[in-house]
Amino acid sequence: MAVADLSQLVKAYDVRGVVPDQWDESLAELFGAAFVEVTGASAIVIGHDMRPSSPGLAGAFARGAAAQGVDVTEIGLCSTDQLYYASGALNLPGAMFTASHNPAQYNGIKMCRAGAAPVGQDTGLAQIRELAEGWMESGAPAPAARTGTITRRDTLEDYATHLRSLVDLTSIRPLKVVVDAGNGMGGHTVPTVFGGLPLDVVPMYFELDGTFPNHEANPLDPANIVDLQKRVRDESADLGIAFDGDADRCFVVDENGNPVSPSAITALVASRELAKHGGKGTIIHNLITSWSVPEVVKENGGTPVRTRVGHSFIKAEMAKSGAIFGGEHSAHYYFADFWNADTGMLAALHVLAALGGQDGPLSALVDQYDRYTGSGEINSTVTDQADRLAAIKATYGPQAGVTLDELDGLTVTTTDWWFNVRPSNTEPLLRLNAEARDEATMAKVRDEVLGIIRA
């Protein structure tokens, strides 16, 4: 395995690549040793998803850490937010073996410091890569005088109890909910978290299978929620919930099978979190969530703070501002009560509590949080990202009533519409998101901007 491969393997926020082509258990062992050196930990916690390669990679990482004298707690099969729970509750650095919604041949590591604080390129991941690269050339580091212990611990019940302590579900009306786990870790966590609640759960694809035999475990792709939408209608259910492969994101459809925008979920949960905190608090949202989000936050007494796209920026701003909640267009939801980490399961519980606490259908409930028309994210392959962004700026900059900002790519705003164009960090793509007060205006703006991007 060439040293250069690590440049493709170690991403901005995690490790991710094809097994065994790009990485294997021998490299996982080096990552384990590097992780404990960078974090300075004396003990760590490790979990893994249902992919065929996950147990072996997690075990190798544990061996690498233990060889450096560090005690390891293995929590076994878990969702990513269950690993964050363990890191927070046990106050230990953690490593989660998952490639989220990527195909079966992929695997990866999401790492955090004690209290679920993220490890990214600027917070330790670059150093972990450097150490691993050095050891690939010179051989594994010398073992410590004492080998650490490796013990097993089941945290599922404690994780479920903690989540249910954060949302009052005691007085909700009975609800019928279809849950699509996509053969991912939601099939492991949902029965325990939802158990004992007044819910009639209709399970779909709860069998843990890292080959994803039914559909890709990425609910943001409309193709992957078709089965859920049909089942909700066939069952006359109150709502449907889909989780991604490592079950840290949730996506919601209403009683008609229509997708509920993650921005609407962000606004709904934000209003509930603000009520819980006496109508005061900071709410984080990224710059491509709907105008609805900051509007609802202000209407409920809160302070909205806008950030760049990406969980490292959200989590950093959560910590800096003392925010109580944060949401992204990608259906990641972050809670101060959950160590500022993201948990789709807690967002799902909020939706159930909000729906079950009143008599109307979900479509009517979310209507107040879904006020504008959005394009969704549209990707375009370009030969020169900077050139196309400059062309967009030159087109819209001189226009009256237009404001520009470059917090993350280029955002162009007027009183009736806005759009953002961001370059991908890893591919020759520009990503467009547009929103307007009505469908016709949104379509016009969207098509104008795509014409410039694709010229």
UniProtKB/TrEMBL annotation:
GO terms for molecular function: intramolecular phosphotransferase activity; metal ion binding. Residues 8-132, 157-257, 264-372 form the Alpha-D-phosphohexomutase alpha/beta/alpha domain. Keywords: Isomerase, Magnesium, Metal-binding, Phosphoprotein. Pfam families: PGM_PMM_I, PGM_PMM_II, PGM_PMM_III, PGM_PMM_IV. Its cofactor is Mg(2+). GO terms for biological process: carbohydrate metabolic process. Residues 377-450 form the Alpha-D-phosphohexomutase C-terminal domain. Belongs to the phosphohexose mutase family. This is Phosphoglucosamine mutase. It comes from Streptomyces caeruleatus. The gene is manB.
